[in-house]
Each structure stands twice: as C-alpha cells, then as structure tokens.
Amino acid sequence: MPSRSRGVTASWLFTLTLAYVVALGAVWWIFVRTRHGQLLDSVALAGNVVGQTHVHTLVTRVLDVVSVASLAAATLLIGFIALARRRLLLALVATLVVAGANLTTQVLKHVVIQRPDLGVQGETAAGLNSLPSGHTTVAASVAVAFVLVLPPALRGTAAVLGAGYSALTAVATLSAGWHRPSDAVAALLIVGGWAAGGGFCLVLAQSRFARATTREAHPYAVSLLAVAGVVLVAGGVLAVTVADPGLYANIDGLTRRRLFVAYAGSAAGICGTACLVMALTLATVHRVVPRMDRRPLPPRPPSRAWTSTEA
Asked: Where are the membrane-spanning stretches (predicted)?
C-alpha cells in the first residue's frame, strides 16, 4: 500500500482502539459505580425469568461449547490457518488478540474491578464483580480472529456468522443468569479494542509487497452488520429507557412486562454491539491483511514538462 494510505489506516485503528478504551471505561463507570446503572442491570437480569424454560436447552448447549479446551483448539486452528497462508506475523497477532482479550477480561474481573454495594436490591455483596463476561470474550475473540486469518473470499460470511455466534453466546449468559448486560457489552468492547490494536500493529509492519484492493472489502456485509448494529442498539436503548423503573424502585414490585422489556432491550443492545464491533473489524481487514504481490508496481507515467514550444 502507498505510505499515505497506510498512515490513514494506522491512524484510524489507533483512534478506534482509544475509542474502545473510553467506551469500556464509560460502561464500567455507569453500570458498576452508579446506583442507577446497577439498578438497570439488575432489572434486565431479573427479566430473564420470563420465558426462561423455553430457551433453557438452547442456552445450555451454547454455553457448554465455551471452555478452556475449545478456546485452545480454536486458537491453534486460527494460528494454523494463518501459517498455512504463509503469514507468520498474522498468526502471532491473531493469537495475541485472542489471548490478550481473554487475559484482559480475567484481570479486570478478578483483580482490578470491584463492585460497590450501592443498596440496589438483588445485588451481591460489595467486592464481588462479574464484569466483563468471560464466555462472551471467548466467543467474540475467536470470531474476530477467524475474520483476520481467513482468506478474503470467506471474510464476509465469517464476519456475519461470527457476529451472530458472539451475540448468541452473550445473550445466553444473560438468559442463564450468569452475567448482567453490561458484562457482555464490556467483553465485546475489550475484543474490539484488541482487534483494532492488533490491526494497528499489522499495518505498521506491512511490507512493500502489500497490495490492498477494494474488491476484498465486503461492503455489503459491512453495511448489513453496521445497519443491524445501529438499529439494535437504538432499539435496545429505547426499550431500556421505557422499562426504567426509577432510581429507588423495588424490583420485586415490577410487572413481568416491564421486566421483559428491560431484558429484551438489553439483549438487543448486546446483539447490536456485537454487530458493530464486527462491522468495524471487517471494514478495515482488507487493508490490515492485504494480499501479497511481489511483482513490481507499474511505473508512474512521466509528467509532461512545460516548455515554451508548447505555449
């Protein structure tokens, strides 16, 4: 790629990485450090009991897939695909994205973040924290890494399927009562940040043989994911706003309809976040992992010098 185009891409990915960090900080502050945020999380979590028996089998099967063994196997496969394409640096970065995202989640959840007891009904004791979601991080990091290492022809399909799998796993943790909505959103933001940061490193390390082409950009898949993400996040915010019971509400006194609206809105917001994270990843992957072409670039046409005879 021309150095100017590479510089623009690197600047965008660096800015995007910072944006993910800021968004993660906002989610932590609102839903962990404020009473209103804790209340909204608890109301949405309480709404998972509505219709829970109908989705219990599906939720169990989805969550059972996520394990240390499955994460290790997926990571090995991701590295193998990149190495099979003769992309050693890509294999290292894609593996680092998976490992880094999951390590970040575990450190934040068990070491860094503490959840204060702000008197919200149904909250656990102070110091017990569940943000971010480990299961969501595993699913989303693996999905993003596959988009990075797969051949260009498969990236669009992999991105759509990966976003769906990440969203399904994240909502399953909410439906099972394992995690609050903010836990899943925080996990998705962590994965997005690591994907953008990994892409930034790949762009900086690109060789002079890298050739990015818009034919590998998958604009339809990016548009589909982006539009779905915006609509779902907007609908989720609206639903949660409608279901907001007020700062000092008694969760036990809320109607099942209000609880379900809060739960459904949170689920929509989670799915929308998964779509947006994947859309942002797919939108730049053709520049982050361009094809390699060792043929020399065609020479530039000589510029015509202005002479007095041409005047």
From this structure: 12-31, 65-83, 90-113, 133-151, 158-178, 184-205, 217-240, 260-285
